[in-house]
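Researcher: Sequence recovery benchmark, item below. Answer with residues only.
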């Protein structure tokens, strides 16, 4: 059996042909494939606008510059990849880390408590962790009642929905972002996207993606104007060709992830010491399959578990270490927040392999190895 990582891309001949065809076209970058990919992702998510960029972190950066003012305070989750809160810092704003719920998502009730106490909080950055959307009715309430800005980090959740609301539709948020890193549901190698229903935010992100530069029909053919300090966060046409080809298969990829997640849930019923992060549900697009383990009642600790599984050719992973306890964040004065659920989560949780190309046999192999190592 080959090594089984926690996540892996699925690339087929159609994807390769799409990239090769674009390599032979007139545009390698800033061409028609970028627009087409943006239109297709916007349509898929049910958002009005989309801007494709070179990675999810760039999407977060640009959306944050458009949404936040320096000095503003922003509620966010410690249970995410570093990029979510880093983007708040890039914009000169200040993240405030809020504890999570047992399902790994930010606790929006705690967010409301914080909002009641502190009028200087201007935004929430929520991650639909592992593909499981946060409660949309709560987002709607907080947005309306407190007039705050909301960003949905959908890096894990393309294809997910909450009672009919699709991730990335920005139904109750100002902007959403996606990542198209190879472990995600669809890949462009590196890549990202901002979706929004706000025309002004859309324009601002487009301009920031390209050096803050504007060119209008009234200008002379050689003229351009730099109106603010932007970046080169463009994505190439051949990456977008790959994205378009992958998007056609996205629903199939998500369906397979759900099938594997459901089977993990069923199999884990026999293993009393390990349980799913949340009971199976169709709304999650299952970027990750995370389990809670009670290491106090296990014959080995987490490190030994990772080592033993790796010896059997299986890559477990930890999503995530609390961002606020990272050395850099400690150097900024973070790290002493009271986040009991996140602390327990960080001790007990880990991710099992899950990707659309995973065979039934590979999943069975992972489960058998887990039973063997945990003595279940
Ligand atoms: C929740 C979350 N947000 C943002 C990002 C950043 O995306 P990228 O790696 O494409 O920059 C990631 C990537 O791992 C992520 O998991």
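Model:
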């Amino acid at each position: 059996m080959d090594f089984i990582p926690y996540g892996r891309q699925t690339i087929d001949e159609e994807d390769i042909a799409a990239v090769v065809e674009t390599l032979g076209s007139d545009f390698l970058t800033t061409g028609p494939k970028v627009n087409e990919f943006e239109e297709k992702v916007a349509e898929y998510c049910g958002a009005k606008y989309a801007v494709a960029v070179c990675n999810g972190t760039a999407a977060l950066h640009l959306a944050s510059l458009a949404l936040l003012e320096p000095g503003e305070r922003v509620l966010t989750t410690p249970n995410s990849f570093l990029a979510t809160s880093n983007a708040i810092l890039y914009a000169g704003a200040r993240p405030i880390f809020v504890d999570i719920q047992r399902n790994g998502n930010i606790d929006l009730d705690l967010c409301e408590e914080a909002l009641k106490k502190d009028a200087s909080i201007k935004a929430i950055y929520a991650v639909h962790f592992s593909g499981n959307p946060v409660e949309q009715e709560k987002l709607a309430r907080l947005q309306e009642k407190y007039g705050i800005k909301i960003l949905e980090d959908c890096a894990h959740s393309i294809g997910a929905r909450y009672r009919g609301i699709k991730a990335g539709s920005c139904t109750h948020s100002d902007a959403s972002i996606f990542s198209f890193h190879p472990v995600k549901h669809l890949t462009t190698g590196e890549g990202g996207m901002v979706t929004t229903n706000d025309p002004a935010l859309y324009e601002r992100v487009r301009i920031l993606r390209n050096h803050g530069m504007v060119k209008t029909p009234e200008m002379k053919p050689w003229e351009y104007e730099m109106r603010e300090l932007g970046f080169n966060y463009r994505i190439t046409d051949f990456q977008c060709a790959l994205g378009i080809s992958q998007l056609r298969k996205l629903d199939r990829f998500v369906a397979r992830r759900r099938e594997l997640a459901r089977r993990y849930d069923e199999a884990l019923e026999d293993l009393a010491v390990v349980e799913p992060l949340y009971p199976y549900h169709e709304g999650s697009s299952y970027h990750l399959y995370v389990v809670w383990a009670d290491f106090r009642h296990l014959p080995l600790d987490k490190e030994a578990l990772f080592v033993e599984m790796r010896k059997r050719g299986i890559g477990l992973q930890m999503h995530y270490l609390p961002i606020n306890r990272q050395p850099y964040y400690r150097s900024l004065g973070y790290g002493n927040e009271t986040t009991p659920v996140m602390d327990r989560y960080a001790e007990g949780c880990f991710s099992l392999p899950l990707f659309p190309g995973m065979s039934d046999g590979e999943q069975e192999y992972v489960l058998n190895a887990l039973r063997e190592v945990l003595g279940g």
